[in-house]
Amino acid sequence: MRVGLLVTCLVDLMRPRIGFAALKLLEAAGCEVLVPANQTCCGQPAFNSGDRGRALALAKKLLSEFEACDYLVAPSGSCAGMVKSHYIDLAGDEPGLAEGMARLAAKTYELSDFLATVVKLERPPGNYVGSVAYHDSCAGLRELGIKAQPRALLAKMPGVRLEELNGAEECCGFGGTFSVKFGELAAAIADKKCANIAASGADAVVLGDLGCMLNIEGKLRRLGDATPVLHIAEVLAGDVGQKVD
Asked: How far apart are the C-alpha atoms of 126 and 2, rounded to whole Å?
């Protein structure tokens, strides 16, 4: 099984260890992993800002890089959702392109969904010990139905105790350009999310999108809260820098 790993812009620029954790998990599941060296953006920022021309150019580039793979996997519900839900629309009436985008969309998965439902990973290599509160990122939840999959994977880790977060399905306030255009509203939403995290009493917050991760972590730190904010890939792979007794 040849799996193409879409690292995503944010992971590449801000938290590369998530990409390495995703690679570790896919290889642990027995996949042959392809990571195109020249991959860039999925086109979502341009698409969300109305620049369909630039978004289409990036979509075509991504298609050419991953079309030979059996699957395309991304450690991000928003990027996977862009490919799966919007690429066909971007293709328009260009001959042959819509068919190629449809084939790519059909084999695109968010990481936890792929691990739980396609390869059915039984033994995550991580050995995290502690309680975690899971935040459901908007794009993964609403575009791809990512809800039970990460929880099922965490349940396979003996040291993990899941504390359900009040308002787990509510936005963290990031929303890509939303947090830039509506800063005060985004900050208020983040305040509520962080209050729910503090009330959970969990040792760490876990989620599946780095945009949400950076937003929540930034707000927590500004509030003086040192609660670790971890990507699901880091926990499953054991790449969180945690000392285990």
From this structure: 23
